[in-house]
Amino acid sequence: MTVNSAVNGAAGDALGGHPPGGTAARQARELLERERRTHIAELGLLEGESAPDEAVMARRGTLQSNLEEIDAALARLDDGTYGRCEDCRKPVPEGRLEIIPYARRCVVCQQRRR
């Protein structure tokens, strides 16, 4: 099952949300928590660098930022808004959530913010 089908599938309401305690939410949570563990593990590896260069420091910043986004996505799961664009309120496309499971916006709305 894909993230989007889990989030916006038959268990969803008319707007594409889902009950926070439902199967879809559990599956999305598992994916996000797995992503979170991976980021934490990679951060741990970077912490072991004796003399971090600019690339290591940039990667560390990206990982920390992504962890914040993952935590925000987990909070959206709790309130039933995960998988819904924060701007236009339409479902975030399946492919986007497969690549970036913590995405807040659909591609169109994200591009408007740049």
Descriptors:
mainly alpha, 114 residues, Four Helix Bundle (Hemerythrin (Met), subunit A), disordered N terminus, globular, 5 helices
Structure description:
With 114 residues, this protein is mostly helical. It has a single domain, classed as DksA, coiled-coil domain (Four Helix Bundle (Hemerythrin (Met), subunit A)), CATH 1.20.120.910. It has five helices and no strands. The protein has helices spanning 3-8, 23-47, 54-79, 94-99, 107-112. Helix 2 (23-47) runs antiparallel to helix 3. The longest helix has 26 residues, at 54-79. Residues 1-24 are annotated as: Disordered. InterPro entries: Znf_DskA_TraR. Pfam families: zf-dskA_traR (PF01258). Residues 80-113 form the Zinc finger DksA/TraR C4-type domain.
Topology:
Elements: H1 3-8, H2 23-47, H3 54-79, H4 94-99, H5 107-112
Helix pairs in contact: 2-3
Output the CATH class name.
Answer: Mainly Alpha
Arithmetic mean pLDDT = 83
The assigned structural class equals mainly alpha
In helices, the fraction of residues equals 55-70%
Counted up, domains total: 1
Low-confidence stretches: 1-15
Short précis:
61% of the residues lie in helices and 0% in strands. The chain is mostly helical and 114 residues long. 24% of the residues are buried.
